[in-house]
DNA sequence: TGAAGTTTAA
């Protein structure tokens, strides 16, 4: 039997563990109805009936939720739909299906056919991004060609999305080609675009490609401080300290002084090596060169010390920062709350949470995510839900990471109704579920023995075109084997095959 | 998301 959580009175559902599973019809989280996003507030100002838009979004979503095998099928399914389409409504629908290219793209095609509405450049960019994110690069390019043909739609924003998504998909060379060919899209190849390219390559583990691209283009476009900081940071993240050093020297050869960002990247690298002696040396060097560390630098050092279980030294950095007249910000507090929580100092973490507001630092989504995660770790359900409510009242938009620990907890405790309530709540807020979330659900349900539901999520993930992680698959199969669920096991095996084949054709 | 920091995990 699961422990009965003590929930605040606004969460109304039977507190008896067993009945939670099958009768929580009156379970109400007062979060969905009173939640108003910033855009909606704006919608109201220009007196758009946002209730109507919401209903239309729901209607379209219901149609799009069925599984279709192609965008054309989606267009057909929407054929008899008579909702009034508007730009903001299309944006909302696209956001909801941003990890599901078939409904998203099909819906966009249908929207184009509603002849009075011409999609804006922004909407085109969103669709390009969705296609890139779901690795449908061929279709993405077709759409880009269409944008060029129609004229006036392609911008640096579009190119940035293309380069970032290609890099993320491991297609470094294609990302470089996209940049090289920018003129063909009617755009100028400038340092801004080059910095985006280098940054995309660096951030997606393609530092080598970034360095090559830098050498290829540096004479065509004179690099600026951003360029070097991107490279230094990229090399540091890739643990290529000698190359980072080279970039730092190259920067100086161009007559650009390394700044607090350059030094902070180096510090972060040494923090990762746990070489705190070297970190201290750089901190001193920064002071002496008249380029003192800032709140970001201190956050990194404090956080690393905290993670290395050197809580005492981490607090020392906090003192040192205050002594040097550097003011903590929200991110700094977030880090402090995190390391204190991990060190088991929950009370201190809570005090910091109270203190930050008094010091003029508003808690943000990370603050809440951290606090909620800590509450879930300690099975403080009521506290976690209270925080969720608090963040919506602020308002502070929850995201995937807000819900992950809550979903995990629901799986563990077998609270299926609440689990589905939360999933629905996420969908309504446009928080699109991706592979990590599915893995969490499948794993959590395996652990608590709800294999039927685990299989359903596994299936849904494959039908969305996602390739399940191999350990998620193995775990599920093992559990099914253990319970002699041969039919289900075979089904899962076939789904995995299907997912693998899908991946190859992408 | 996008020149540096903070949540997070199979």
TrEMBL record:
UniProt key word Protein biosynthesis: no
UniProt cross-references to PROSITE patterns, sorted A to Z: PPR
InterPro entries (UniProt xref): PPR_rpt, TPR-like_helical_dom_sf
Superkingdom to which the source organism belongs: Eukaryota
SUPFAM superfamilies for the chain: TPR-like
Cell division keyword on record: no
Coiled coil segments of this chain: 478-505
PPR repeat intervals: 155-189, 224-258, 259-293, 294-328, 329-363, 364-398, 434-468
Keywords, comma-separated and alphabetical: Coiled coil, Repeat
The protein's name in its UniProt record: Pentatricopeptide repeat-containing protein
Species of the source: Thalictrum thalictroides
Lineage of origin: Eukaryota, Viridiplantae, Streptophyta, Embryophyta, Tracheophyta
